[in-house]
Design goal:
By secondary structure, the protein is mainly beta. The chain is built from two helices and 44 strands. Strands 18, 20, 21, 23, 24, 25 and 28 form a seven-stranded mixed sheet that branches. Strands 37, 38, 40, 41, 42, 43 and 44 form a seven-stranded mixed sheet that branches. It has a five-stranded mixed sheet with strand order 26-34-33-29-30, with no helix packed on it.
Length: 657
């Protein structure tokens, strides 16, 4: 402050203000106390042994200090949860920390924080009672050790035996397994099942176990069985392909035994009431396998004997296996080419060589793990093409060489998934036509990687309202049949068929046929008219035959000249056309959709767009253009061929003809 006639002067005054800041519970900490002085900080869960005493404590940073409440306990400022008697089952423990803060302007504010802790109680397994067992010598023993698991459920097994001086190798599996029981195996067997318990306090790790015992009583009969190849006994033998070999199995028994030699579990030769069995082998690659001989009489069975036989042969296709060499795949998906061989010795993975072929040359696959993946194990090798692109639709080659003979070379064709190939040889079997039924047959085309189904439609040639549509599932037979029923006698019909899958559909293939006239159900049997009828028949048969022949010839010529035109459809219609029109001048019905049929346009104009057209558009063609054999040549078709009566009818216009 400055006076008028004075000098500046400064004056001050200070007043103190105390601010108390409260803090809600923060940084909650859980501790596991395993004795009076030892503890460790834990989070989320702890593992303890069943029955062991321990303590839990809970603490936070807060102002004013917090009180603590454990699950099922009363609140206390110490935060201690004392479990003196231990636990028998796992449970969830939760600690809640709370404080109450008195503020000047907001009154009492309640602060809290909680933490959950899963207490996992560990205990060992318990065995169940094992029943005594009797077996015949030579049988296979698979005896399970029954038990109730502990916590954790992982267990280990150990089988021991007593009551015999024979050598014994301890087994460490749940099932006690003796492939061929012998007299020396009669003993008491004890199963020991144990678990390793690892609590949070690792120094307390322990093993808990339980035991159970059963007695094995062995019955026996035939004995001393010997299996030899070329008069020598070996567990495994290598022989040359095309060599001649003699396998002989002998045993001692009284009376003679029923003896069997099997290969890989399948019987190859057997005789009864004998002591020796001989099997001659003219070695082929397929003779490789495990050969086992066994024999028994009414008192029991002898121990089985086995020989692992290896036949040296070059890599080749497995016998009687249909090898898949054409694969379909969509772009941007993975495609796996699979191949398995027969060979001995077994080729190394490096002896399976995959290549890709451009034009006439093949080169090793580039070392690109993002594009190609090769998995080779044993006698099989798989090539996976990752994220298939257009340039990947080529030929891939696999060559295998195991050091014997020549290399095996196979080529695989990877093609894009597409709509199915056109069904061929679509026609009504003339010999099956009656006044009410007819059988349609066709040869399915390749589905090109997507399952296909067949759409069949038929109607009266002069009545568009009688249209019936059906869908028939592909049953993967070489030739398919469908029996059309409920037809009208003496009526001309038009039948059409196309194949479709999720990629698109084929062109439509048509055929026409005419049902037989109805035969009278009540023929006249008047004796006085017999001679008249006979004379009439005798005088008219020749004329009728001649007329029928002329009609058939004219009809065949007409069909050869006939062509079918596509229907005109509305722009927003997704329904494929089913029927076309006949030649100008005929009395056949026009297309069943409303609207006129385009004229002056070739039926093949729809092919000009190539692959640009819709997958659901059908190119109409006559039967002779789509079939591989002329219509009407059906002498080799049997009437008893199976037909389909369980087709699904879709959008029927008329259900009863």
């Amino acid at each position: 402050m400055t006076e008028t006639n004075g000098i500046p002067e400064t004056r001050t005054n200070v007043s103190p203000l105390q601010i108390v800041v409260w803090q809600t519970p923060q940084d909650i900490t859980l501790r596991y106390h395993y004795d009076k002085t030892g503890y460790m900080t834990v989070k989320n869960s702890i593992k303890v042994l069943a029955g062991d005493a321990f303590w839990l404590s809970c603490s936070v940073v807060s102002s004013p200090p917090s009180i603590y409440t454990w699950t099922g306990q009363t609140a206390s400022p110490s935060g201690i949860y004392n479990i003196t008697g231990g636990l028998s089952t796992s449970q969830q423990a939760s600690c809640l920390a709370e404080n109450f803060m008195q503020t000047t302007f907001n009154g009492t504010v309640h602060g809290m924080q909680s933490a959950d802790l899963h207490v996992d109680v560990l205990y060992g397994p318990k065995t169940k009672i094992l029943q005594d067992l009797s077996l015949v010598r030579g049988d296979m023993l698979v005896f399970p050790c029954l038990y109730a698991p502990g916590n954790p459920p992982a267990v280990s097994f150990e089988w021991t035996r007593s009551g015999t001086s024979a050598s014994w190798v301890k087994q460490n599996t749940q099932n006690l397994t003796i492939e061929y029981v012998q007299r020396s195996d009669e003993a008491s067997y004890t199963c020991k099942v144990s678990s390793v318990l690892r609590p949070t306090l690792t120094s307390a790790t322990t093993v808990q176990y339980d035991t159970a015992t059963f007695h094995l009583d062995v019955l026996y009969g035939a004995e001393n069985l010997i299996l030899q190849l070329n008069n020598e006994s070996h567990l495994s033998v290598e022989i040359e392909e095309h060599s001649t070999n003699h396998m002989r199995c002998s045993l001692e028994s009284d009376p003679g035994s029923y003896m069997v030699i099997s290969k890989d579990g399948t019987q190859v030769i057997a005789r009864n009431e004998i002591h020796q069995l001989i099997y001659d082998i003219r070695a082929e690659c397929s003779d490789k396998g495990v050969y086992t001989c066994f024999g028994y009489n009414r008192y029991g069975a002898a121990n089985n004997a086995s020989i692992q036989l290896f036949v040296k042969c070059s890599a080749r296709r497995p016998p009687e296996v249909n090898v898949k060499l054409i694969y379909n795949a969509r772009q941007h998906e993975n495609a796996t080419l699979v191949y398995q061989i027969v060979a001995y010795p077994e080729p190394k993975p490096s002896q399976f060589v995959w290549k890709r072929c451009m034009n006439t040359s093949c080169a090793p696959l580039p070392n690109d793990i993002k594009k190609f993946k090769i998995d080779t194990e044993g006698l099989s090798s798989n090539l996976t093409v990752l994220d298939v692109q257009i340039e990947d639709y080529i030929i891939y080659q696999l060559s295998v060489f195991n050091g014997v003979g020549d290399s095996l070379v196979e080529r695989f064709h990877l093609r894009p998934t597409g709509k199915p190939d056109l069904p061929t040889d679509v026609h009504i079997i003339q010999d099956t036509i009656t006044d009410r039924t007819a059988v349609l047959t066709w040869i399915p085309g390749i589905d090109n990687g997507s399952p296909q189904e067949f759409h069949v439609s038929y109607r009266k040639l002069v009545d568009e309202t009688s249209l019936v549509r059906l869908i028939i599932k592909h049953d993967y037979t070489k030739e398919m049949y469908y029996k059309i029923e409920n037809l009208e006698p003496g009526t001309k019909y038009l039948v059409s068929l196309f194949a479709a899958n999720e990629e698109g559909s084929t062109a439509l293939v048509n055929d026409t046929f005419e049902t037989l006239e109805r035969i009278s159900d009540y023929p006249v049997n008047n004796p006085n008219t017999g001679s008249i009828v006979g004379g009439a028949i005798g005088g008219t048969v020749g004329a009728i035959v001649a007329i029928v022949v002329i009609v058939v010839i004219l009809r065949r010529q007409y069909l050869l000249k006939c062509y079918i035109c596509p229907n005109k459809k509305s722009a927003d219609s997704d329904e494929p056309s089913v029927f076309g029109t006949n030649n100008p001048g005929s009395n056949a019905a026009q297309a069943h959709e409303d609207g006129s049929v385009a004229t002056g346009t070739s039926v093949y104009d729809v092919l000009r767009d190539g692959d640009k057209g819709s997958d659901n558009s059908h190119v109409y063609m006559t039967l002779n253009e789509s079939s591989q054999k002329p219509q009407g040549n059906y002498e080799n078709v049997k009437k008893e061929d199976p037909v389909y009566n369980n087709a699904v009818q879709t959008n029927p216009v008329q259900t009863v003809l």
